[in-house]
Specification:
The protein is mainly alpha-helical. The chain has a single domain (74-264), classed as Orthogonal Bundle (Glycolipid transfer protein, GLTP). The chain has helices at 54-57, 77-82, 95-103, 106-110, 117-136, 146-153, 163-186, 192-202, 210-219, 226-234, 239-263, and strands at residues 2-3, 11-13, 26-28, 34-35. Helix 3 (95-103) packs antiparallel against helix 5 (117-136) and helix 7 runs antiparallel to helix 11 (239-263).
């Protein structure tokens, strides 16, 4: 005998129903005929099927800033590729490719955190100054040193806002970075702060006044752990080999800038 007494079974359904798209879980109460308790063929109660609602089934992953940056090669790979195009067929340093290589070094400085914020800001500002001048007449300023020649002729090269001044300090900042990267490869026993201080004393320090030197000394105390820094910038490549290539390839370009600036009497300016 079949009883007419309705039962309420709670059935858990996913929220992909078109009728109820906003509910993560829909409980449907329905009538179901069931055998009478006196019926000898009564079956045992059907067990409930417990499933987690969709919002509990989502795959949880770490946010991007907690995952190690994955990259093809190392953080130096873009700049190494860019340096292949810095010189023209006649061997002249070209403005746009040179500045692009300098910009591609900025991501490395970002990994230093606040310890390199002053250097990063200085480099970025000088790149912007030179790019703005180049953009005003790309043909006229195609060659990097033409930016200086025009100002020397106009007797504006010594202005603190000149492109000559910008190129000089950009080149000096890159000297510092090359020396720092060289230390990281050739002095594996040095702490990051020691590698930075040594590079600074060999490059920028003699051109800085007391205030700039003091600011750098304070900032360098915030240098990151050496091993963690090297792990972050390594990517999937050989970081030591790429640093060696970077220093060996970039140093001659910087030396060429210094030689040219010295020829027009603009390589010995100090910070005001």
């Amino acid at each position: 005998m079949i009883s007419d007494v309705p039962t309420c079974n709670m059935i858990e359904e996913a929220s992909n129903s078109a009728d109820h798209p906003s509910h993560p879980m829909l409980y449907i109460y329905h009538h179901e005929a069931r055998p009478s308790s006196s019926d000898p063929t009564t079956l045992p109660p059907r067990p409930f099927r417990h499933t987690s609602p969709p919002f509990l089934k989502r795959r949880h992953t770490s946010p991007p800033f907690l995952r190690k940056m994955q990259m093809e090669g190392t953080v130096f790979t873009p700049s190494l590729e860019g340096m292949k195009h810095v010189k023209s067929e006649s061997g002249v340093i070209l403005t746009k490719p040179f500045l692009q290589v300098c910009k591609q070094i900025l991501p490395v400085l970002e990994k230093f955190g606040s310890a390199m914020s002053i250097v990063k800001t200085d480099i970025g500002g000088n790149i912007t100054r030179l790019e703005t001048k180049y953009a005003s007449d790309p043909t006229k300023y195609e060659q990097l040193h033409s930016l200086v020649k025009v100002e020397v002729s106009a007797k504006t090269a010594k202005s603190s806002s000149s492109c000559t001044n910008g190129l000089l300090w950009l080149t000096r900042a890159m000297d510092f970075l090359v020396a720092l990267f060289h230390n990281l490869v050739h002095h594996p026993d040095w702490q990051m702060s020691q590698a930075c201080s040594d590079a600074y004393s060999k490059t920028l320090k003699k051109w800085h006044g007391w205030l700039a030197s003091s600011s750098f000394s304070v900032a360098i105390k915030l240098a990151p752990d050496r091993k963690k820094f090297m792990d972050i910038i390594s990517g999937s490549g050989d970081i030591n080999a790429d640093i060696e290539k970077f220093c060996a390839t970039f140093s001659p370009l910087l030396a060429e800038n210094h030689k040219f600036l010295a020829s027009v009497g603009m390589d010995d300016l100090k910070a005001s």
